[in-house]
Design a protein that fits this description.
heterotrimer; A alpha/beta (about 575); B alpha/beta (about 325); C alpha/beta (about 150); B: about 325 residues; five-stranded parallel sheet; about 30% helix; globular; C: about 150 residues; alpha/beta; Rossmann fold; four-stranded parallel sheet; 4 strands; about 45% helix
Chain lengths: ~575, ~325, ~150
């Protein structure tokens, strides 16, 4: 790689031969303003804002655009000569004659000392920098945008100004557009409330959440431009450690294990069907999980509690039992919500000066220090109202601007109906079993209850094991519980697994089936009966045989055998006939 | 030394067992030679009084075929039990009830009504029903009372051995004869009481030569509906073959000829009810878990009770409902 | 005086027996007429057990298992359903009303359902009256007596 030596503003820099002046300036940390430059694309030099004066040191000079002027040995660049500055000013003024209101241009105007553009102020927001066209062309490879028409009618457009079939909706154009002229919008007109916390990151590369293990980002092939068009790969250009491999495939690995711990967790109840609370319809009605994300210091608001419009709320209502203790949704109590609702009110009181209203049915502060915490938040002037909220409505005009939302409820302690004006409503949504809980249960041959929580071997005496040998439960998948209980259960499950695995020999259930060779005639009626494939046919002896290690002792084959050759140990025919005789004698 | 005495009696039977005994061909001469035949009403002229006059335990071996369904059957069964050292229930009728046992699906009154009053082949207007006592000019005639319930021999008297089959196959009869002769001649010990002779402890499938596989039934068919594949198990071809629930010993001759086993060799050794056992096995291999479809498949079983209990009804767990 | 039905119940260990247990621990009141035989799976229930129960004097037989898809042994209840279907046909053939044999699916959490099943089945059998299967006397003395008395 050949390098050349050049000077910028008197400072020496050595660069590779293929680079441009702007690269040299960036290497030296010298600021040259640009509008249409993007590091991973070829320079376009459309905006003409990056102009500098090039000299050869022998008297020759020229105004050139720094972004695409190739460097050569001995080149001397001066970035802030009067001529260069003046050229930039004129170019910007000309640009502003078309697009004045863009904040970006106004900041540059201030930087260049432009008071009032000489040639008027246009209202357009597209500065024709071509970033969108070029990113779609070179990086994304979808080729959906181009410049259309000429002269003063030149504009960025799709083919024939019609909805493009080539556009892959990657949003790259919107993301590189410096002026916000291109926006990504919902076409159904539904308002997205707190979009970042409701929908999560919609970037193609993201970290699942801050505490994810392993703590590495992953590429979503559905959203990634490279997987759609074969182009881009900007992330691998940026990565200094070359960690990004686009050809990584999902691998299915099979492990033979002696024990399984089900710790599949829960889903959050989606309150959208509860139209009375306006989730998804009204701004600032959010679920508890979304509030947690917002409150987190690494969340979309940096930990600040803000409304959708960026303001601080004046009053927040926390509604308990949304989807829990509800005949129409889940009859059970989700156990964790009262305590986290109090936690929220404590955080809100800490971070803002908002009023907090807790609308509850019962206060369930059952654990160590929980009741004391409840009393503490009462001392912090949190308003507690005993009465499940009936409805959340938008504040009407007749009330002026008291609050954006009104929470309607019955306060059963004072025996009155109330309308409480608040800015934000937090819904304490139920913990639900995972959608695939029934399927998982079938796969592992464990039982699942009507609510979708896995069934433990005994509700009091065996909370972490199941009736299937070797499959254990931990956490909310067995039933709603909070962190201390989950941790205890996890430890218990782990210790039971160790107990199972550390034994040199396993005690097997003595109740299994045995086929008497002397009675079996090899009719094979039983061969297909066993779901555990414990019955096999011995071709040499021409009889069937049961593998007692696989046999679970259900006795289905015993009842099927027409010759009575199969005996169920401890549940023999004789024993059952004796019971019948005894009962009816 | 006096020849050992042999008695062969037929109660409620078709006579097939007696013919089967004759079917041992020349061996019958051996039998006549070795034994002193004291009672075989089917073949020769004997009177009940001949037996009554005998001393207790003077008949070495009695082969008793036929079910017990009348006072006469019962009386002679008791008599022969008293006079015999060894009493064998010979054939399916004596062992399980066999075809006469099918009368237990109905009752004596219904049978009498049908046979003597309503059968389509009767001359109309006759309506004479046999009575147990009838006065005739010469005196009073007695006909044994017919029982309402057909019973097996072991259900009414103490039986030593069972020789199953409808009829027991002649080669098996010959083998039993040989064994008996061997015991009597050479003083070998008798088998334990209750042993089943002339048959093995396994099922018919043990003797069947057809290829067997896992069964998955979607429909049952009657044997005349298809031309059977000679190599493949008849159950897999859709027929109800009671072979898996029937004791072996017959040589699986019916099956070899393409006719599904009817179960005439009786209960397998470890089963209490042949019909229930076969029904359970059959239901297990029906290929459906939809209740309506299962009912439709079961509808293709033409006569469930007759099919499963053809030979074993009196010995089964089924009972008549009291009126 | 109304008669007390005698019902033999075959309950599978994991679902219906546990469901019955639940009814017990929850102190639910239900008719005491069902005498239970615990089996590991409803698939263990042999039609011979049902027939023997009726022969021995039961007025009704109740077979309970897990709901389809929930069987602890995956598909034992499928076989049970088919076997009970064929047993009902055998009962019908002998003149025994097949309604005296009932098959119900009761899960481990359905204590209330077990209570309801037992109560409704007991009432049904009570309304149908005692089974009254004729026991065919087999002991010789009994045969003598029966023959003398009824021409049996």
């Amino acid at each position: 790689m050949t390098t050349i030596k050049m000077k910028i503003d008197g400072r020496q820099v050595e660069l590779e031969k293929e680079l441009f002046v702007l690269d040299g300036a960036r290497a030296l940390g010298i600021h040259i303003p640009t509008l249409c430059h993007y590091p991973y694309m070829a320079p376009y030099a459309a905006c003409r804002i990056c102009v500098v004066e090039a000299r050869d040191g022998k008297g020759w000079s020229k105004i050139v655009t720094a972004c695409n002027y190739p460097v050569w040995d001995g080149l001397e660049i001066h970035t802030s000569t009067p001529q260069a500055m003046n050229t930039r000013r004129v170019n910007l003024e000309m640009l502003m004659s078309r697009c004045a209101p863009i904040p970006l241009l106004q900041r540059l105007a201030e930087e260049f000392g432009i008071d009032k553009p000489r040639w008027g102020t246009g209202k357009d927001t597209c500065i024709l920098c071509g970033l969108c066209v070029r990113v779609c062309d070179e990086v994304v490879g979808a080729h959906a945008l181009a410049f259309g028409d000429r002269g003063i009618y030149r504009s960025v457009a799709t083919a024939f100004w019609e909805t493009s079939d080539d556009c892959i909706l990657c949003g790259a154009c919107a993301s590189v557009c410096p002026t916000g002229h291109i926006k990504m919008e919902e076409i159904h007109g539904r308002s997205i409330v707190h979009s970042e916390i409701s929908l999560g990151s919609n970037s193609a590369i993201s970290l699942s959440f801050r505490q994810a293990v392993p703590n590495v980002p992953f590429i979503d092939p559905q959203k990634c431009i490279h997987f759609n068009t074969g182009e881009c790969k900007v992330c691998s250009k940026v990565c200094p450690k070359e960690c990004i491999h686009y050809d990584d495939q999902d691998q299915f690995e099979e492990y033979e294990v002696g024990a399984v711990v089900m710790a599949t967790g829960f889903d959050s109840f989606d309150p959208t069907p509860m139209k009375q609370y306006g989730y998804g319809k009204y701004p600032n009605v959010i679920t508890a999980e979304e509030f947690e994300v917002m409150n987190n210091a690494s969340g979309p608001t940096g930990g600040k509690i803000l409304l959708q419009n960026g303001e601080e709320p004046r009053a927040i209502a926390i509604l308990h039992c949304i989807g829990s203790r509800d005949q129409n949704y889940h009859k059970y109590c989700s156990r964790v919500c009262c305590m986290y609702a109090f936690k929220f009110s404590h955080l809100v009181k800490e971070k803002t000066s908002a009023e907090v209203y807790q609308l509850y049915i019962d206060v369930r502060s059952f654990g160590k220090g929980y009741e004391e915490f409840y009393l503490r938040i009462l001392d912090e002037n949190v308003n507690v109202i005993r009465g499940k909220a009936a409805e959340v409505v938008l504040s009407g005009f007749r009330r002026g601007e008291e609050g954006h939302l009104l929470v309607m409820c019955e306060d059963t302690l004072i025996g009155k109906f109330r309308e409480i004006p608040v800015d934000m409503v937090i819904l304490c949504t139920a913990l639900e079993a995972r959608k695939d809980a029934k399927e998982m249960a079938r796969k592992l041959n464990i039982s699942v209850g009507a609510d979708g929580w896995f069934i433990e071997a005994h509700p009091k005496l065996a909370p972490v094991s199941t009736t299937t040998e070797g499959v254990f439960l931990a956490g909310v998948c067995q039933g709603p519980k909070d962190i201390p209980d989950t941790v205890a259960q996890g430890g218990a499950a782990a210790s039971q697994v160790l107990e199972l695995l550390c034994q040199g020999e396993i005690m097997m259930d003595a109740a299994y089936a045995v086929i008497d060779e002397a009675l079996c005639s090899g009719c094979k009626m039983c061969n297909d009966m066993c779901p555990y494939t414990a019955i096999a046919f011995d071709d040499a002896k021409k009889v069937s045989a049961v593998n007692s290690a696989l046999c679970k002792g259900c006795g289905t084959c015993v009842a099927a055998c027409p010759a009575g050759a199969i005996m169920a140990r401890h549940f023999t025919d004789e024993q059952i006939y004796a019971q019948i005789e005894g009962m009816l004698s | 030394m006096a020849k050992p005495k042999l008695a062969i009696y037929w109660a409620a039977s078709c006579g097939g067992c007696d013919i089967a005994i004759l079917d041992i061909e020349e061996k019958i001469l051996e039998v006549a030679d070795f034994f002193d035949l004291v009672f075989w009403p089917c073949a020769m002229d004997f009177k009940y009084d001949d037996i009554r006059k005998m001393e207790g335990k003077s008949i070495t071996l009695t082969l008793f075929n036929g079910a017990i369904r009348s006072d006469e059957n019962y009386e002679i069964a008791k008599l022969l039990r008293e006079k015999s050292v060894v009493l064998c229930a010979f054939g399916s009728c004596a062992s399980e009830g066999c075809i006469p046992g099918l009368a237990n699906f109905t009752d004596k009154q219904s049978i009498m009504d049908y046979v003597y009053k309503t059968s389509p082949s009767l001359e109309p207007g006759n309506g004479v029903v046999p009575q147990t006592n009838v006065k005739v000019p010469e005196g009073t005639l007695h006909i044994p009372n017919l029982w309402n319930t057909v019973r097996t021999l072991p259900q009414v008297v103490d039986v030593d051995y069972i020789i199953p089959g409808c009829p027991p196959q002649s080669n098996q009869i010959a083998a039993v004869v040989d064994a008996v002769v061997d015991i009597l001649k050479n003083g070998k010990p008798l088998p334990p009481k209750g042993t089943v002779l002339g048959a093995s402890d396994k099922c018919c499938c043990d003797e069947c030569k057809r290829q067997r596989n896992v069964k998955k039934i979607k429909k049952f068919i009657r044997p005349f509906e298809i031309v059977t594949d000679p190599e493949v198990c008849l159950m897999e071809q859709g027929m109800i073959c009671l072979g898996p629930a029937t004791r072996s010993g017959c040589g699986a001759k019916c099956v070899a000829a393409g006719v599904p086993c009817r179960g005439c060799y009786g209960l397998p050794s470890n089963i209490r009810d042949q019909g229930a056992s076969m029904a359970s096995a059959l239901a297990s291999v029906i290929d459906s878990i939809d209740e309506a479809e299962v009912e439709r498949i079961l509808d293709t079983v033409a006569d469930p009770l007759g099919t499963f209990y053809r030979f074993s009804l009196p010995a089964s767990m089924l009972r008549r409902v009291q009126q | 005086m109304s008669f007390e039905p005698r019902i033999v119940g075959f309950l599978c260990n994991w679902c219906s027996y546990t469901g019955a247990d639940l009814a017990g621990t929850a102190r639910m009141k239900y008719a005491p007429n069902v005498m239970t035989v615990r089996v590991m799976c409803s698939g263990r229930v042999d039609p011979a057990f049902v027939l023997d129960s009726f022969r021995a004097g039961a007025d009704g037989v109740l077979v309970c298992g897990c709901h389809f898809g929930d069987c602890h042994y995956v598909e034992g209840n499928h076989k049970c359903m088919r076997r009970i279907a064929i047993t009902k046909r055998i009962l019908k053939g002998m003149g025994i009303p097949p309604e005296r044999l009932r098959l119900e699916w009761v899960s481990a959490s359905e204590g209330a359902r077990f209570q309801e099943v037992v109560d409704s089945f007991t009432e049904q059998i009570r309304a149908m009256g005692p089974m009254r299967l004729k026991e065919w006397a087999f002991v010789p003395e009994q045969v003598e007596a029966a023959t003398a008395a009824h021409g049996e």
